[in-house]
Design goal:
Chain lengths: 371, 371
C-alpha cells in the first residue's frame, strides 16, 4: 500500500467516517478506521455496528492495499499535517503505516484489516431519491424536535412517511412536533411505507453534504436503510417501535392567527428566558394579546418580573396561553424566513407555527397548564 | 436613580467587573454588582474581597442613586438587551431596578447597597506608570509560565522586580521560566522593590486594555497594589512568599545557538505531541542535531514513532536534550516574531529561548532526564 494525497483530502474522509466510531468501542478493532487503497481511490470505513459510514476520496496510488489505524490518533495526526504532498506507505510486515512529508516521517501502529467488520451489501429494497438540499432542509427543520432520551428510542428518531404521492417527515419528543412535507426526485415505493431513523445520525449525514442540487439515494430494507451519495455510503439500522399517529394531534383550524417577525419574537423570548436562571427559575412564559400587541410575561423569585411586547398582525380571538420557552426558542432559531404565523385555538390546545414561505412545514407546541 | 445608556456601554462595564465576582461568594451581597449613578457617570464595582474592580462609563443620568444587582443575572440580561436606548429606573422602595426599552419592561430584584463592601481608599504608596501596551506585552510573554497550583501561591503569580533603573517581570512553575525587562513611563521607587501579583488577574486586566499608548498607573502599598486607568480601578492583594532568586537559574553562556523559524518548529512539536495521546502516552520529545537539521523524536506504544526534521542555522556544538513538549509548545504560541534563538549548553542544563526582535525577553525550559 502506497499513495499520495493532501491534508485537505484526508480531512474530508476522516471527518466523514469519524461519526461512526464509537466513543466506547465494544471490540478494539472498532476504535479504528479501515482504509482501502485502489488505483485511483482511497475508501475510508468506520462502524459501531449500529451505524456504518464509508467515504471515498480520489488519490494517486502506486500500490493498492488495506490497513486499519486508530481513529482518534489518525484524526489528530491529519489535522497537524503540513500543507503539501504527503506520502503513505505500509511497512513490509504491515505493522506500521509510514506517513512522509518533507524530510519527516511518522510511523503509526496499525491493526489487522481482516478483523474489521464489512458493511452489509444492500441492493434489494425500495428506492427513494432526494436532492441533497431537500435532505438538509429536512434535518434542519425537523431534526431538533426529536428527543435525546434513549429509553423510548422511537422518539429519538425522525419518522419517514413515504407514499407514491408524497414524502413526510415528523419528529417529536411529546412536548412539540415538527412536520415537513417534502419532494422526491424519484421513488419506487408502491404502497405507504413508514420507518424511523436516528435523528442525530441524519443531522451528521446532512453536515457532510455540500451540493444542494446533487442527488442522495436511499435503499430501504426491512431492518436497515442505505444512504448513498457519489462519495459516501451510510448504513443505518431502522429504529423499532410504534410511532404515534401524528395527523391526529395537528389542530385542523384556529381561532387566532398572528403574523410575527421571527427576529423580534426570538429576542423577546430570549429575554423572557432570564426568569429560568437561578435555583427557583421557571421555564414558563405567559403569552397574551391586546390589539396588535403580543405580550410575553415571565417571572422568578430570584430574577424579578419580565414584560415583553412584540408588535404583531392579528386576526381572530384574543387568547392567553403559556409555553415552555425552550420549545419556542429552539424553533425560532432554525427558520430561514423573516415572518411566521402563530395559530392558536385556546389555552389548552397546542399552538401551531407556520413559517411564511416554508409552507410545507409546521411546528406544534403543547401548552403548559398554569393556575 | 434614573439614567439611560446603550447595551454596548453597559456590556463594557459589566464585562470588566465580572472578573471580580466569585463563583462561590462568601456573602450573598458579593454575588452582586454595585452600581453608583452620578450626573454623568455610572460606576460599576465588584469584589471577592481578594480582588476588587471598579469601572466607570459615561451616561446621561436624570437622578443619581446606588443599587446592587445579581451579577450573573445582570450579565445575562445585558447581553440580551436590544440595540437602542435603554432606561434604568430604581423603584420608590429601591427593591426593583426597572429596565425599559421600546414598550417592554424588565424588573430586576435588587440587594441593599449599604451592605456592599467599599474598596479601600489607597493614596499612599510608591508609584509606577507603564504604557498599556507594555502591560499587555508583560502578561502575554510572562503570564503563561505561572503555575495554577494554589498550594504554593507565589508560583501562581508574576514577580514584579522594580528598581529606579529598570522593571523586570518573572513567572515560573519550576519547570520553565519567563523573564522580561520592560520600560516604565515614570516611577517613584527609590530602592529596589519586589512583589508578586496573581498572574491570572493581571491577564484579565490586560484584556480590558485597548489603548496601547495610554498610561496605566500602579500604587504599591505594603500588602496591596492599586492598578488604575482612566476608566478602571483594580485592587489586588500582594501574594506572600519568598520568590526564588531567578538570576541564579538563567545560564550565562551557551555551547550551541540555533536560529529557528517559530512556525516550522511549532508545527513539528504539535506533531511530535501525538505521542502523548493514549493511556501510555509520553510528553517527552527528544531533540538532536546534525548539520543544519534539528531532529525531534517521540514515540509511544499506542501511536508509534515520530521523526520530525526542522531546518535551522546552528553555531557551536551538537547537543542532544529532551523536553516536555508542552513547555515548548506554550511558549512558541505566544511569540509575535518569526525567528528565535535556542541556546543550549548540555543535556542537563536548562535551554534558553530568545525571540529575535523581543530581545528584552527570555524563556527557560528545564530539560527532562532520559535513559
Amino acid at each position: 500500500m502506497e499513495f499520495s494525497c493532501t491534508r485537505q483530502e484526508l480531512l474530508d474522509g476522516v471527518n466523514a467516517v469519524s461519526k461512526a466510531v464509537s466513543a466506547r468501542p465494544t471490540m478494539p478493532i472498532l476504535s479504528g478506521i479501515y482504509m482501502e487503497v485502489q488505483e485511483n481511490s482511497l475508501r475510508f470505513l468506520a462502524t459501531d455496528m449500529e451505524l456504518g459510514i464509508e467515504y471515498t476520496i480520489p488519490i494517486r496510488a502506486t500500490k493498492p492495499g488495506t490497513t486499519v489505524v486508530n481513529a482518534k490518533i489518525f484524526n489528530e495526526m491529519v489535522r497537524r499535517l503540513p500543507d503539501g504532498p504527503i506520502t503513505f506507505l505500509l511497512s513490509e510486515d504491515s505493522s506500521l503505516l509510514k506517513v512522509r512529508y518533507f524530510g519527516s516521517e511518522l510511523s503509526l501502529n496499525t491493526m489487522n484489516p481482516i478483523e474489521f467488520p464489512v458493511l452489509p451489501h444492500i441492493v434489494e429494497g425500495e428506492h427513494v431519491t432526494l436532492t441533497q438540499g431537500q435532505f438538509k432542509e429536512m434535518t434542519r427543520l425537523v431534526g431538533f424536535s426529536a428527543s435525546s432520551d434513549e429509553s423510548r428510542p422511537w422518539f429519538t428518531g425522525i419518522l419517514w412517511d413515504v407514499n407514491p404521492e408524497y414524502i413526510r417527515w415528523v419528529a417529536t419528543d411529546t412536548h412539540r412536533l415538527s412536520f415537513l412535507q417534502g419532494t422526491m426526485v424519484s421513488s419506487t415505493v408502491q404502497e405507504g411505507r413508514q420507518f424511523i431513523l436516528h435523528a442525530k445520525t441524519l443531522i451528521d449525514v446532512a453536515r457532510l453534504l455540500h451540493e444542494e442540487e446533487n442527488p442522495i439515494h436511499l435503499t430501504i430494507t426491512k431492518s436497515q436503510v442505505l444512504i448513498e451519495t457519489e462519495q459516501m455510503r451510510v448504513i443505518l439500522r431502522i429504529i423499532e417501535g410504534q410511532y404515534p399517529k401524528y395527523q391526529q394531534v395537528i389542530p385542523k383550524e384556529y381561532k387566532c392567527r398572528m403574523t410575527v417577525k421571527v427576529k423580534a419574537l426570538l429576542e423577546a423570548v430570549d429575554r423572557a428566558a432570564l426568569a429560568s436562571l437561578g435555583k427557583e427559575g421557571s421555564n414558563i412564559i405567559k403569552i397574551s394579546m391586546d390589539g396588535n400587541i403580543l405580550t410575553i410575561r415571565s417571572n422568578s423569585p430570584e430574577v424579578g418580573h419580565i414584560h415583553e411586547e412584540v408588535f404583531v398582525d392579528r386576526e381572530g380571538d384574543s387568547i392567553s396561553i403559556a409555553f415552555n420557552y425552550r420549545y419556542l426558542q429552539e424553533a425560532l432559531k432554525v427558520f430561514s424566513v423573516e415572518d411566521i404565523y402563530i395559530d392558536l385555538t385556546g389555552p389548552l390546545v397546542p399552538g401551531v407555527i407556520r413559517p411564511i414561505g416554508e409552507d410545507r412545514y409546521l411546528y406544534l407546541i403543547v401548552p403548559v397548564r398554569t393556575v
